[in-house]
Design brief:
The protein is α/β, with parallel strands linked by helices. Helices cover 44% and strands 17% of the residues. The longest helix has 15 residues, at 39-53.
Length: 216
């Protein structure tokens, strides 16, 4: 627990350049969402956008029931970071969910020139090798993956954002491994049922908290 608290303290001392993408392009991406935002989505996105526009690493817990629009907000954050020239990693607890996120991100970003890849047990050996090389060179903008993303042979060129989906299904070791690789990375933890440890860090101020309670 002490190591975890020390890591939070260390992160608060880091400075990183604000993510300030082209306003017109970002507005175009936001308008591509086919549904009307709920009031909670608007509020949560304002929180996330302000975090990314600051000069301190974000560590935000995004809570909301299934189907309440958490993934859309994560994709908006990913767009903001990728458009500013940094990489995005999306950590999913299962292969099936990773593949679902790959399809969702690919469809949502179809009109934009970002390279999106996936790493899981279903990834073919040649594709995995090419993806690892792309991550290291910075030619892969967004990578979706399972625990595979927390292994020692992953070397990001410029990781800017880590999205941890269903964070309650990951152990502390997996999440902190990536944080230690890039201590100043921005983090969004997404969950419908966060574990007590995560809630505690949010309530004590180590993490910021956004709730989406309004159904679409």
């Amino acid at each position: 627990v002490q190591d975890l608290l020390n890591l939070y303290v260390k992160r608060h001392d880091f400075f990183r350049a604000p993510f300030l993408p082209d306003v017109e392009i970002e507005s175009d991406f936001l308008s591509g969402f086919p549904y009307k935002d709920t009031s909670d989505q608007v509020s949560a996105w304002n929180d996330i956008s302000c975090d990314l526009s600051s000069n301190s690493p974000m560590d935000r817990l995004l809570c909301g029931d299934v189907g309440f629009g958490k993934t859309e907000l994560a994709m908006r954050a990913a767009f903001k970071v990728a458009e500013a020239g940094s990489q995005v990693a999306v950590l999913a607890p299962t292969t099936i969910l990773a593949e679902q996120h790959l399809r969702t991100f690919t469809e949502r970003f179809a009109e934009y020139p970002f390279t999106i890849r996936c790493l899981s047990r279903l990834t073919a050996t040649r594709e995995e090798r090419e993806t690892l090389e792309g991550i290291a060179r910075g030619t892969v903008d967004i990578v979706v993956g399972t625990h595979r993303l927390a292994q020692a042979d992953i070397h990001f060129d410029n990781l800017g954002l880590l999205v941890v989906d269903e964070e309650q299904r990951f152990g502390v070791k997996h999440k902190e491994t990536i944080k230690k690789m890039t201590p100043n990375v921005d983090i969004i933890s997404v969950s419908a049922t966060p574990i007590p440890r995560t809630l505690y860090t949010a309530l004590t101020g180590a993490k910021d908290l956004s709730n989406i309670n309004t159904p679409p």
